[in-house]
Amino acid sequence: MNRYLFFGALVVLALVYPLLVQGIPVWERMGALVLLAAIGASAWNIVGGYAGQVSVGHAVFFGFGAYAAVVVYTHLGWPPIAGAPLGMLLSVILAAVIGVPTLRLSGHYFSMATIAVGELVRVLSSTSDFLGGAQGLGGPAMPRSVFDLSFLSATPFYYIFLAVLAFLLGLTWWIERARMGFYLRAIKDSERAARALGVSSGRYKLYAYMLSGAFTSLAGSLYLCMFGFVDPESGFGILISVKMVVMAALGGAGNLFGPLVGALILVPLEELSNSYLGGRGAGLTFVVYGAIIVIIARFLPSGLLSLFRPRPSKPAPKSEIASGHAD
Amino acid sequence: MLIEAHNVTKAFGAFKAVDDASVTVEEGDILGLIGPNGAGKSTFFNCLTGDLPVTSGRVSFAGHDVTRLPPEARARLGLARTFQVPLTFESMSVLDNATIGALLRHPNARDARARARDVLQRVGLGHVIDAPAKSLGTPGRKRLEIARALASEPKALLLDEAMAGLTPTEVRDAIELVRRIHGDGITIVIVEHLMEVIVSLAQRVVVFHQGREISRGTPREVTSDPKVIEAYLGRRKVRHA
Ligand SMILES: Nc1ncnc2c1ncn2[C@@H]1O[C@H](COP(=O)(O)OP(=O)(O)OP(=O)(O)O)[C@@H](O)[C@H]1O
Ligand SMILES: [Mg+2]
């Protein structure tokens, strides 16, 4: 079928991309950055997209992952990637701690609570000597073994990120089709109706939040491995959270490939504007993201991919289903 | 007794929307719950299902004290409901709406889908199974509410004005549907403004007025009860008294 052919072509393209841009560091790096952003946004998508619980504080998990990776190096001398499972575990626990009280809140109140928690953690991290304070911490300057994941080009990272993204999307695809996926969508549409049908909405929202937090944390650890450095702003900064939301929303929140599409558009945009505008581009990022949020909210509430969604094959017979509106 | 409400009171601030209501429903019953607008019928339903916590009193279902249980736990025990204003899962197809209900007893999505299909056929939504739920009009949505609830394979079904807004033909179909559901062994509590519906379905009727029970009996008995007639006709007078 056409759709599978198209999908297969994309997979092949993803696999050979580094070969196509070999020797052009900017584009090698770009590929890896797109995938890393897609991992973060896809992780966010589980709770923010499918379950409709719009967290604007996912940087908490990203920062936990990044700091877990750098802390095991700084304090224990381990390779940073060894901190990834630790970061994921801590993030699951943290998600439970944050989620139990805040997931009860509806809509915007949940979003605001996650912002507050995110900012609180950012401020706390900058006062912690253990985490290197406002200066942050750096990973190994010179690779000691292959496990330090210090590579001259971005291409090895590209393939690592590709594998992680494939796993995450595969997992999400499976959830989408299982009971949990149905329940998350039901909660998003009407939590009250879902509960009346026996859905333990609190439990399912929490599962989604913990899973989402774990993979966001993994994205943070991978970030640290590639960049070798994290400080409170690059780990816990609110822009990290906002980017996840905007990427997912742009492509289509609650859509398997939505976050990837968003990352494919926004990451190159940001990289290019940074390289042309240099340091002056930093403030502009906020403006651009703000503008995108407004545009999505106004014109594209279901994201870009909704423009391509196949229409239902047979429109239902109008006379039978649309009659009797009087109530 | 399948459903027992003992001295249930629900207050919003100082206002008692349900005031000391005690209602019991036996397995296999069809109980009608009637009363003028604002009598507290929906609020009482919400107390039975756990959508609202009671201010005081006790609710038990199928031998369990469920007063402190959340709605999902009561649903799992077999208490299903429809909402007066349908709460359709708007982003889903008609089939997926019913599948959410079916997943309660069939955790495997494929089994639940098959089960949901059966139920949709049974309630007369077979021709719109794959349509987006948001394309349904009010009658379709009300039927979908019933289908979802039935797909959860309940012991009891609470219908909150499931027939409001239907044409006379649709009402007749809906009455038939409720009969069939009852015939499948499901206990029913029905709130309906149309007396025709209550008279043709209910064995017993409880009448609410301003949060209190004012009458009970067979449909014939309550419709000839002067208190009931006064409640319906002389509402303004009664409220000032
Ligand atoms: N959440 C609430 N907060 C405050 N008052 C409420 C709330 N819900 C219901 N009420 C009030 O409680 C009273 C009973 O409302 P309820 O919806 O139970 O009536 P009803 O018998 O279902 O009426 P109808 O036939 O119009 O559906 C009304 O006066 C209503 O305004
Ligand atoms: Mg009502």
Distance between the termini of chain A: 45 Å
Which hetero ligands occur in this complex?
adenosine-5'-triphosphate, magnesium ion
Whole-angstrom Rg of chain A: 21 Å
Main β sheet profile of chain B: 6 strands, mixed
The chain-level mean pLDDT of chain A equals 89
Q: Could you give the order of strands across the largest sheet of chain A?
A: 1-2
Radius of gyration of chain B: 18 Å
Q: What's the number of helices of chain A?
A: 14
Q: How much helix is in the residues of chain A?
A: over 70%
Low-confidence stretches of chain B: 237-241
* CATH architecture verdict of the largest domain in chain B: 3-Layer(aba) Sandwich
Count the beta strands of chain A. Answer: 2
H/E element order of chain B: EEEHEEHEHHHEHEHEEHHH
**What's the level 1 CATH class of the largest domain in chain B?**
Alpha Beta
Q: What does the oligomeric state look like here?
A: heterodimer
Structural class assignment of chain B = alpha/beta
Topology-level CATH name of the largest domain in chain B: Rossmann fold
Low-confidence stretches of chain A: 312-327
Task: Tell me the overall shape of chain A.
Answer: globular
Q: Please, could you describe this protein's structure?
A:
The complex is a heterodimer of chains A (327) and B (241). Chain A is built from 14 helices and two strands. Chain A is mostly helical and 327 residues long. Chain A has a domain at 24-136 and 148-238. Chain A has a two-stranded antiparallel ribbon. Chain A is globular. Residues 312-327 of chain A have low confidence and may be disordered. Chain B has 241 residues and is α/β, with parallel strands linked by helices. In chain B, strand 7 (156-160), helix 6 (168-183) and strand 8 (187-191) form a beta-alpha-beta unit. Chain B has two domains: 1-78 and 154-241, P-loop containing nucleotide triphosphate hydrolases (Rossmann fold), CATH 3.40.50.300; 87-153. Chain B is 39% helix and 24% strand. Chain B has a six-stranded mixed β-sheet, with helices on both faces. Chain B has a four-stranded antiparallel β-sheet with strand order 2-1-4-5, covered by helices on one side. The model of chain B is unreliable at 237-241 (pLDDT under 50). Chain B is built from ten helices and ten strands. The complex binds adenosine-5'-triphosphate (ATP) and magnesium ion. Magnesium ion is lined by residues 41-42, 84, 160 of chain B.
